[in-house]
């Protein structure tokens, strides 16, 4: 009887179930519909945007934004290749280096743990600034127009290291490490054969964070890349948008070519650029989704 009563007390009423499902559906639509609108606007003609604004049902469709964007498709493909290479290499190196940093400072028996933990927190609060960063990378390291200038600044993210450290502290029990040490395993073997396999959720989560960070980065390209052949796709998109805005704001050119200025895409081009830029991330995210929540929450509760 007590079990039956407990089940009835803990069960969700039909009305509550409907309200919860309706709320989750509304939240899901709030996340999905803006993406759908961006895609639709990218296929909308300028005349429709000027007359009706953004709409899920445009009066006139057009491919002019994508035609303008992919007019020189070789440049787009080359920029995609640069971004994919930088993102893949940067994600692998970043996750490995952050794990190598987070694991020692998660160990209570590591004598330099307080120093490196303080150093990590200090870099979260203070930075040298853009000028010193530019001088170090261009004059000190000589990395102007070098792909390493797109990799090195983003390899270590202090906040991500803290998440990994918390995961190691709450998930990897010291007795497990001690038993492996008694069996003759060294620190490197313990890290590779025990710690990393047990840390797959947080590693996948940090890999997702790093992938998004490297893929969306354009500011380092603005600082350190001068050769167009080495532009990543995000920075190339910004250059294209700036060129289009310059053409639209050029009064003399607009007077000489009024039809060109009228048909030249603006809002639709921005949305087409957003679609091109976010496409790979939308394809990658489902592979990390099952690890995402687990990697962030499993280290938050100990016991």
UniProtKB/TrEMBL annotation:
Membrane-traversing stretches: 20-43, 79-103, 115-135, 147-168, 190-215, 269-288
Q: Which GO terms describe its cellular component?
A: plasma membrane
Query: What InterPro entries does its record include?
Result: MetI-like (IPR000515), MetI-like_sf (IPR035906)
Official protein name in the record: Carbohydrate ABC transporter permease
Q: Does the keyword Cytoplasm apply?
A: no
Family statement drawn from the similarity comment of this UniProt entry: Belongs to the binding-protein-dependent transport system permease family.
Looking up Pfam families in the UniProt record yields: BPD_transp_1
* Any single GO BP term: transmembrane transport
What is the membrane topology here?
Multi-pass membrane protein
Q: Where is the ABC transmembrane type-1 domain?
A: 80-288
Q: Which UniProt key words apply to this protein?
A: Cell membrane, Membrane, Transmembrane, Transmembrane helix, Transport
Q: Looking at the record's lineage, which domain of life comes first?
A: Bacteria
SUPFAM superfamilies in the cross-refs: MetI-like
């Amino acid at each position: 009887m007590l079990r039956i009563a407990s089940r009835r007390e803990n069960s969700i009423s039909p009305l509550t179930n409907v309200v919860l499902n309706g709320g989750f559906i509304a939240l899901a639509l709030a996340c999905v519909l803006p993406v759908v609108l961006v895609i639709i606007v990218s296929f909308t003609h300028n005349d429709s945007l000027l007359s009706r604004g953004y709409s899920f049902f445009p009066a006139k469709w057009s491919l002019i934004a994508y035609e303008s964007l992919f007019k020189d498709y070789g440049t787009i493909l080359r920029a995609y290749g640069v971004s994919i290479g930088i993102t893949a290499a940067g994600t692998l190196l970043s996750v490995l280096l952050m794990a190598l940093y987070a694991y020692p400072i998660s160990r209570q028996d590591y004598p330099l743990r307080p120093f490196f933990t303080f150093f990590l927190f200090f870099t979260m609060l203070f930075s040298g600034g853009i000028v010193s960063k530019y001088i170090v990378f261009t004059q000190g390291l000589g990395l102007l127009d070098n792909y390493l200038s797109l990799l090195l600044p983003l390899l270590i993210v202090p906040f991500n290291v803290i998440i990994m450290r918390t995961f190691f502290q709450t998930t990897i029990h010291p007795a497990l490490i001690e038993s492996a040490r008694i069996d003759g395993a060294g620190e490197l073997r313990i890290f590779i054969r025990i710690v990393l396999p047990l840390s797959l959720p947080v590693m996948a989560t940090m890999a997702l964070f790093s992938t998004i960070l490297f893929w969306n980065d354009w500011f380092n390209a603005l600082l350190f890349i001068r050769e167009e052949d080495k532009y990543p796709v995000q920075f190339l998109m910004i250059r294209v948008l700036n060129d289009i805005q310059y053409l639209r704001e050029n009064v003399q050119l607009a007077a000489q070519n009024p039809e060109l200025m009228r048909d030249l895409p603006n809002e639709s081009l921005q949305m087409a650029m957003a679609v091109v830029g976010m496409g790979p991330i939308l394809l990658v995210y489902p592979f990390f989704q099952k690890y995402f929540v687990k990697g962030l929450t499993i280290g938050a509760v100990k016991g």
